[in-house]
Amino acid sequence: MKSKKQKPDFLHIGNRLLLWYEQNSRDLPWRKTKDPYKIWICEVVLQQTQVKQGTAHYLRFVERFPDAKTLANADTDEVLLYWKGLGYYSRAMNLHKAAKQISEEFGGNFPDNFDDILKLKGVGKYTAAAVASICFGTPVPAVDGNFYRVLSRLFADDFDVSNTQAFAYFSKLAMRIMPADVAGDFNQAMMDLGSEICKPINPLCSECPLNKDCVAYLTGTTALFPVKTKKTKVNELAMQYYFVENAGRFLIRRRDTVSIWKNLYEFATEIPADWEKFVIKTKTIAHKLTHRNMLITISHTQISTSDFEDFAKENGFVISSVEESDHVSFPKPLENYIKMFNVKNPTL
Ligand code: SF4
């Protein structure tokens, strides 16, 4: 992204925000580094994960994979294992692919400008802007939902955040308050303000460093912003699994479809028709993803030893115990199901 030279006309707002950030910034492990690899990992971890939960995962991940080269050379299963608990595993798959890209296309060095960072697999404009501004001082705003919310309230601007032009529009708006020479701090300050103060519901306006200038606050209209007319389209999806079990061990197999959960492990999706009578218990789990509402039915099916082993062999399943299953990654609902599986009393 070529940053247009545009003079901020509300610079005092940005400066007040930076002052607040200086005094209130959260003490987070990735705030102590300018290593673009680590900032990138942290941004991806935090995309769909709360800071509290994401911190431990981030630390574990960068300890095992401290640089792009280590990550590129790692086995996919291990990368997925270190992502366990975070969900949305496509993020881990993309990190892995992008690390290989860094090795192959960028000579092992993390790209040092917005346009090249944007070429990495899975990296969008927000992440590229965050890394470029924090690590290389590039004057670009890292516009995300926090920016939409804060800016639309600050200027009482009713531009629809579901409009495809919203990113460009709010980027321009951000430039009006962003001191170009400290874009990295500014972006982090906006992230903190959006999550700690200017919350989606009940923003803490009396504590906000921008309240003297915030039009929505001054006119009592914070609840009207941001404006979003289109709802995210959500598809319904029903799935059936069979937890085929014998004496506490059960069948798992790597999922290789191109749709969701690629490369994760799962249970059997089909069993021979005459095994239906061995189903001892069925559980239905509702699971929400960003664009999907899933209803997952898991039928616990107890099978005698020889049938169990034959079925595993013929259909490419691995026979696993609860402990062994810990070494591979499952979609969250299946991971939770295994946690609840009571080996001593399987009917529970
Ligand atoms: S004054 Fe309130 S609505 Fe305005 S930016 Fe601050 S927290 Fe958000």
- What distance lies between the first and last C-alpha atoms, to the nearest angstrom? 56 Å
Number of helices: 15
Give the tally of β-strands.
6
What's the overall average pLDDT, rounded? Answer: 92
Structural class: alpha+beta
Please give the domain count: 2
Biggest sheet layout: 6 strands, mixed
Q: Give the class-level CATH name of the largest domain.
A: Mainly Alpha
The helix/strand order is HHHHHHHHHHHHEEEEEHEHH
Please tell me how large the radius of gyration is. 24 Å
List the ligand species: iron/sulfur cluster
Shape: elongated
What is the CATH topology descriptor of the largest domain? Endonuclease III, domain 1
Residue fraction in strands? 5-15%
**What is the CATH architecture descriptor of the largest domain?**
Orthogonal Bundle
Assign a percent range to the helix content.
40-55%
Q: CATH superfamily assignment of the largest domain?
A: Hypothetical protein, domain 2
Unreliably modeled segments: none
